[in-house]
C-alpha cells in the first residue's frame, strides 16, 4: 500500500476516535454510532441508475463537507438543537470508518475504483 494511502488511513482512524470521544463527551450513547452506521450507505442508491450517478451520490454522502457544513451551521445558529450534532458526528464516523477500511471516494467508471485504490484488491 502506498505511503499516502497509509496516511489517509491513519487520519481516518484519528477522526473516528475523535468522533467517539466527542460523542461520549456530549452525552450521546456510543452505541448509536454502530446502530445508524449503515444508514449512510443509502447514498449508494444512485448505482441503480448508473455508475456515474452512483459515484456522484456516493461521493456526496461520503465527503466530510456534509458533516462539516452541518456542524458549522449548527454552531453559527447558536441554537439548542442537539440532533444536527448527532447527525454530523454519526455521518463523520461512518466516513472515517469507511475510509479506514479502504472505501474511498468513487470514480465514475465502477464502484470498486476509488481514490484509495481498488476495493477488494490486496495492496
Strand order of the largest sheet: 1-2
Structural class: mainly alpha
Largest sheet: 2 strands, antiparallel
Strand segment count? 2
- Overall mean pLDDT stands at 93
Count, helices: 5
Measured by DSSP, the beta-strand proportion falls in: under 5%
- The overall number of domains is 1
- Report the radius of gyration as a whole number of Å: 15 Å
The H/E string reads HHHHHEE
How far apart the termini lie comes to 5 Å
Could you estimate the helical fraction of the residues in percent?
55-70%
Estimate the global geometry from the Cα principal axes. Answer: globular
pLDDT below 50 for ≥5 consecutive residues: which ranges? Answer: none
List its traits.
123 residues; transmembrane; membrane; transmembrane helix; DUF4260 domain-containing protein; globular; 2 strands; two-stranded antiparallel ribbon; 5 helices; mainly alpha
How is this fold's topology laid out?
Blueprint: H1 3-25, H2 31-35, H3 51-61, H4 65-77, H5 83-100, E1 113-114, E2 117-118
Antiparallel strand pairs: 1-2
Helix pairs in contact: 1-5, 4-5
Amino acid at each position: 500500500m502506498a505511503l499516502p494511502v497509509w496516511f489517509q488511513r491513519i487520519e481516518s482512524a484519528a477522526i473516528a476516535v475523535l468522533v467517539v470521544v466527542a460523542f461520549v463527551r456530549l452525552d450521546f450513547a456510543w452505541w448509536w454510532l454502530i446502530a445508524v452506521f449503515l444508514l449512510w450507505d443509502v447514498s449508494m442508491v444512485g448505482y441503480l441508475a448508473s455508475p456515474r450517478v452512483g459515484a456522484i451520490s456516493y461521493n456526496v454522502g461520503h465527503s466530510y463537507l456534509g458533516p462539516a457544513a452541518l456542524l458549522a451551521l449548527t454552531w453559527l445558529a447558536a441554537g439548542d438543537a442537539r440532533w444536527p450534532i448527532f447527525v454530523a458526528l454519526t455521518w463523520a464516523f461512518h466516513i472515517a470508518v469507511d475510509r479506514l477500511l479502504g472505501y474511498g471516494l468513487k470514480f465514475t467508471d465502477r464502484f470498486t475504483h476509488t481514490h484509495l485504490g481498488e476495493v477488494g484488491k490486496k495492496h
